[in-house]
Write a structure and sequence with these properties.
about 60 residues; mainly alpha; 2 helices
């Protein structure tokens, strides 16, 4: 699958956010903020999938 620069940029930013939330959850295990951060990581992953799918469907360079 060949993708454009914007697709790669969207993916990199989303993956960075997911890593940040997972790292926070691991660092603060057992606390309320860790559970919330884990939830945010899952939501960010779903959001990334939607955004990348939407981009791929509408981008003339990727399709």
């Amino acid at each position: 699958m060949k993708t454009c620069h914007r697709f790669d940029l969207l993916k990199a930013r989303a993956e960075r956010d997911i890593r940040m939330h997972k790292a926070h959850a691991a660092k603060h295990a057992g606390e309320r903020s860790a559970k919330q951060s884990s939830t945010l990581a899952a939501l960010a992953r779903q959001g990334m999938a939607k955004a990348l799918s939407r981009h791929y469907a509408n981008c003339p360079e990727c399709a």
